[in-house]
Dihydrolipoyl dehydrogenase (Rhododendron griersonianum), 510 residues
Amino acid sequence: MAMASLARRKSSLLLSKSLCNSSDAFKYSISLTSFSRGFASGSGDDNDVVVIGGGPGGYVAAIKAAQLGLKTTCIEKRGTLGGTCLNVGCIPSKALLHSSHMYHEALHSFANHGVKFPSVEVDLPAMMAQKDKAVTNLTRGIEGLFKKNKVNYVKGYGKFISPSEVSVDTLEGENTVVKGKNIIVATGSDIKSLPGITIDEKRIVSSTGALALSEIPKKLIVIGAGYIGLEMGSVWGRLGSEVTVVEFAADIVPTMDSEIRKQFQRTLEKQKMKFMLKTKVVSVDTSGNGVKLTLEPAAGGEQSTLEADVVLVSAGRTPFTSGLGLDKIGVETDKVGRIIVNERFSTNVQGVYAIGDVIPGPMLAHKAEEDGVACVEFIAGKEGHVDYDMVPGVVYTHPEVAYVGKTEEQVKALGVDYRVGKFPFLANSRAKAIDDAEGLVKILAEKESDKILGVHIMSPNAGELIHEAVLALQYGASSEDIARTCHAHPTMSEALKEAAMATYDKPIHI
């Protein structure tokens, strides 16, 4: 580590605390005195920990609890573990994103690399089968992990009958009561519907239906320009659909740095994705063969119509707590239905905890996993730690967009003096060698201390590149720290090094 950089980091301690305290993100930065709490196995079927929900937060919490020596039961209503993410979200969408990207590359790019075919066609059933195989293998893998770690798995819909008892209507049509000293709610989130729009998963689909279309729509309308909408729009756009994204807000992916967002939108437009921003859906007509939307400007004005074969409603997600009986045991929720917890993930009801999408914070699978581990560690008398400012976000289009920390707009709002370093992939040798050089790395650092405040990457595999930046932020690194760390050549990661050099001094290769 450079000595000058170390000195600057020490001098920035007060600033670092200020930034942390003034963050507008809901986050934890937990460093609490450990406490001791003993557990006995109890009599009968009592558990030390019961987890309601087997998604990324729930199954990880259950495995961690068992690893810590706690008798653990996980209740999951779906009948397969992994939650929305594995069954109808993260995993199947990434499978289709990869398959559709391969087709698009074969159609448009392979010839440039000297690989030619007489023709290229899509076998949609085979593509869907590959996706389903990936999901099946992974869900079975989690069941194997449960057996390995001796987690009891109950398939059914659980609801509270007391703070220490969960009634489960099993998938076999029976009922059982699962008792636990500590119960964790990890039921995730559900699709957010829009007024006047009925999702039938045929012509008007959610992300679930968009992952299982039986044919490629000629025209696809996506309502919502967030992560899911852009990813699924990319899948079907690559396969031949004419994709139009309708968004009420003025921008796509509002959590992105605005400079990156604008370049990202231009890139998607070059891929023939159309955008109608500041636009409101007034009504939906499904009386004909297709779907007709009536639209108007978000601020009001003249109406227009837009027709498609399929409409994807991707307007976000909402906490799923329906039928849990939270009101029966007095668990408090906020105005949008999220469960209120303290820094230990404990609700206002003793022995009842909540994690993941049902509590405030980013609705991301990896955030839920971190919640699960930390929550169980607190239950076991250890220390937990989740800092939501350090949770990376990734949009898995091509190129991908990944980011962690603060945007330039957030840094400006804090009134912090800062520097910006950028490096385009057009100047990265590996990106040029593989003919995939669209994008850039952008680093924000505090001017006096050089402490990194945020990193934003648009590139192929940005979701893999971002973790060096996450680690840097986690340990309070400076841009000079990254710049003086040797990176293998030729790699895409060198663009991060060069952007760091541009932040504290000057890059070499531009």
The radius of gyration is 24 Å. Confidence is low (pLDDT under 50) at residues 1-44.
